[in-house]
Every structure is written in C-alpha cells, then in structure tokens.
Amino acid sequence: MKALLDLDRLLADGEISARQHARLRRHAAQETASLAYGLLAGLGVVAVAGAGIALLPAPQTAMAVGLAVAALGLALACFGASAWRLVATLWVFVGTLLTAGGLVLATEGAPAAFVAAALLLAVPGVLVRSHLLVVLAVLALASALGARAGYFDASYLLGVDAPALTVLAFTLFAGLAFLLHLRLPASSSGLALSAARTGVFLVNLGFWVGSLFGDRLALGEAEWAISPLAFAVTWALALLGAGLWGWWAGRRWLVNLCAVFGAIHFLTQWFERLGAAPGSVLVAGLLTLAFALGLRVLNRDGGALG
To answer: Domain extents for the chain?
Structure first.
C-alpha cells in the first residue's frame, strides 16, 4: 500500500523526527526519479518501436528483427550481469513491440492477431517485471474487441465498437486480475494490479461510448438493444459503488479514477442533454470546480488511502 503524507507537516507537528524526515524525503525523491525515468523510457521505447516498424520494409521483417532483439534482451536479463539489466529490459521492450506491431500489420488488424500480440507483450512483461508491457497487453486485448484510438488533422479519435461487451469482459478481467494481485508474492502482485487498473480504465471507456450511442448485445439468435440512458444510469451506479468501496478499502487510485470519470460522465450527459449554451457551460463549470475542491479535500484527508 502507498500512502500520501505531508512530511513537513508531520515534522512540524512532532510526529516524526528530523532524521526520519530526511530519510523519508530521500526515499520520496528516489520514487519520483524512478517515476520520471519510467515515463521517459516508456515514451522513448514506444517511439523507437513505432519508427522501427515504419522503417523496416515489411511487417514480416519487423517481426523477425523484433524476435531477435527480444530474445537477446531476455537472454541478457536472465543470464547477464546486473549491470546489463537496464539495457536488457530496453531491448525486450523494443523487440516485443516490434514483433507485436509487425504481427498486427501483417494480419491487417485481425482480432486474433491482437490476442496473439497481447500474449507476446504479456509473457516478456512478466519475465522482466515490466508494467508497461503488461498494460500494453491489456490494451491489445481491448483492440481485439474493436477498441482503438488515433490522431489525424488536429483531431483525436476514441472508438469502442462493442461497448457492452467491453464493459462485461473487462469487468470480469479486472476482478480476476485484482484477486490474482491479492494472492501473488510482492514481486509479481504489482503487475497484476496494473492489469486490473487498466481493465477498470477500459470499462469506463466502454461505458462512456455506450452512454452516447448505446449498443446491441447478441447471444446466439437472441439480441438485446441497450439504450444510451441504460448505459448512463448503470455507469453512474457503478462509479458510485466502486468509489465507495475504494474509499472503504483504502484504494486511492480507484477513488481518484471514479472521481475523474464521474466528472467526465457528468459533463458528457450535461452537454448532451442541455447543449453548450453559455448558461449551461457556466453552471457546469461551477459544479466541476466544486467537484474538484471536494476531490482535493478527499485526497488531503484520506492520507491512508493506497
């Protein structure tokens, strides 16, 4: 569990000594540096892999080169000296992404290819303890159901072809991954938690798209139409229930996620129903500010949340 603490306030209140204050600040600085490195390395790896796929002459070539680079990285990670650990991990990242990207391109984005890509990303991710690869593996599974994102002409695209199926599938996935997180040793439980969190994020994306366009869910010859209103109401109840459970269980990340998507849900439905008139924008803005202040108080006072 991670806790958010105001070290300066604890020192001023006499809860910790000056020595403890210095030691905790040193650990916090190390965590911040690790986070910054992780973000930069993740962006760099994705950029290198994407450019590699574009520059190589054929998807099959990208797959071959990716497999070779990933295999070399895994060999260094398993049998090389500790000094080579960082290089080995980066090679695994780049090689795995090249292989998965080449596979998806070679099959023109077939659903089965995304499932195979998810496996290609997940297995090395577990072996080298990479949260980035595990998260990308879960996103690849979502792409197998038609989820996608893109950018073109100063416009951003978010698509979920099967909102109802996405919500159902990743609710189950997130629940199973969270249970696995509780039972795995500390060295591996974080990976399962990252997978569960990504699943919860995808559930909210499915609800978001469904609350705008609705969906049709087919099972054999039976088919059910799900209205946008049904999605909107179910999403609101799910956010409320998950947020309350997260508060009770000390899961700060889940509380914050529910709060953020609660605001997105509110603004989406507000403007869908009332339009973007000046009055509705003003009221929505005031309510959002009040919501943000409440979230700040929640995070400040809930210091034990993880």
So the answer is: 1-144, 162-306
Residues 67-84: tens digit of each pLDDT = 888 888 888 777 766 666
> Are the C-beta atoms of 97 and 147 separated by less than 8 Å?
no
Instruction: Tokens 């049709």: give the residue.
Output: 216
Contact 135, 86 (CB under 8 A): no
- What CA–CA distance (Å, rounded) separates 251 from 168? 22
Closest C-alpha among 140, 104, 108, 109 to residue 123: 140
**DSSP state at residue 228:** H
By DSSP bridging, strand 155-160 and strand 215-219 are unpaired
Length of the chain counted residue by residue: 306
**For the whole model, what pTM was predicted?**
0.76
In the numeric block, which tokens belong to residue 68?
A: 């070779």
Per-residue pLDDT at 43: 64
Q: Kindly list the distances between the CA atom of residue 286 and the CA atoms of 82, 282, 290, 293, in Å, as whole numbers in the listed order.
A: 54, 6, 6, 11
